[in-house]
Amino acid sequence: MPKRFAPLFRQHMDSVTRAWLDAVYADRRTDLTSILSQRELVEHLPDLFDELARLLDEEAPDAEIEDAAARLRAYAQGRFQQGVLIDEVARELMLMRYVLMEFLWREDACETGGGVREFSKTLRCASIFCDELIAQTIIIYAANLRPSVRTRGSVWPPPRGRRPH
Question: Which of 50, 104, 121, 151 has the maximal Cβ count within 10 Å?
């Protein structure tokens, strides 16, 4: 498959960002717009779009998608430090998934050489990526809240204790 998602995301970054911002501002289930400035809301999007485009272009396996989401932990850590509630971050990512799915559906309709199987792989990869970002958010919040909450898929924060001599 040709590498087509990186240029596609770059070309449509503004419109996808605008669609997502509109969805966030329209959603009354969060206070994101009163907690964060517009700049703070969108500053993580270029990294997110670049990572997703790379995963889609490479037809990345699930393990690589999980690793990519783990590399984007700074986003969830930033939201935690900004005082955003965990359910608001989850809602933010759910809205991102919705906007991405709409974007991918629209772009696939314009694509002539795609195919149902290829498009299905694209949607699956994007969905897994969004799910993993939500999982990383849960891990970050669990690791930062007291009492500590164990998670099965986390090595974050690193274990504390004495080093063996």
Answer: 104
